[in-house]
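About this split. The held-out portion is used to measure sequence recovery: a designer receives only the C-alpha cells and must propose an amino acid at every position. Recovery is the fraction of positions where the proposal matches the reference. Here is one held-out target exactly as it appears in the evaluation file.
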C-alpha cells in the first residue's frame, strides 16, 4: 500500500517523541507513547481533524505513559502493550513515575505477545519484543510499508 503517514509530537520533561500513524486520506490514527499530557494530545489531534483509534505503548516508563489514561478516557481507544511490561506498568516505583513526582500506574486493555500480528484500523502490525531498555520494550513493525516504531529501543 505504501500510503502510511506518520506524525510526531514531542512533549514533556523528557522530550518524548509521540507518534501517530494513519493511512493517507483517513482520519483515524494509531497513537504511540502518549507522553505526559493526554488532554493536550487529544486536542491537538482533534484540531488536525484526527481521531484516536488505538493507543500503543513501546514500553512503560513514566514519560511514555503519563498521558495514556486521559487520552483513553477522551477517545475511548483501547491501550495495547507487550505482556512482559505488565509489572512495570502496574508499579509506580518501577516505571519511575513516583520518583518523577507524579505516581502513575496503567492497565492496558490488551496485552500483546512477541511475534503477534494484529490488524488495527486496517493496518497490519507485527509486535517485536526488544528487551533491554525495559524488560517489556517492544517495537511495532508495519511490514507492508517497511516502517518500524521503536520507542526508546533506538534513542
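Reference sequence for scoring:
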Amino acid at each position: 500500500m505504501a500510503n502510511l503517514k506518520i506524525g510526531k509530537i514531542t512533549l514533556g520533561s523528557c522530550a518524548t517523541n509521540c507518534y501517530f500513524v494513519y493511512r493517507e486520506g483517513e482520519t483515524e490514527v494509531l497513537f504511540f507513547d502518549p507522553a505526559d499530557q493526554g488532554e493536550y494530545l487529544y486536542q491537538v489531534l482533534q484540531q488536525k481533524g484526527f481521531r484516536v483509534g488505538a493507543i500503543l505503548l513501546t514500553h512503560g516508563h513514566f514519560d511514555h505513559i503519563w498521558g495514556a489514561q486521559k487520552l483513553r478516557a477522551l477517545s475511548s481507544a483501547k491501550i495495547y502493550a507487550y505482556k512482559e511490561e505488565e509489572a512495570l506498568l502496574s508499579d509506580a516505583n518501577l516505571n519511575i513515575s513516583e520518583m518523577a513526582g507524579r505516581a502513575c500506574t496503567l492497565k492496558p486493555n490488551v496485552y500483546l505477545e512477541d511475534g503477534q500480528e494484529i490488524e488495527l484500523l486496517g493496518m497490519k502490525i507485527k509486535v517485536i519484543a526488544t528487551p533491554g531498555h525495559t524488560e517489556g520494550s517492544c517495537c511495532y513493525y508495519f511490514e507492508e510499508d517497511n516502517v518500524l516504531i521503536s520507542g526508546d529501543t533506538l534513542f
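Annotator remark: The chain is about 15% helix and 35% strand.
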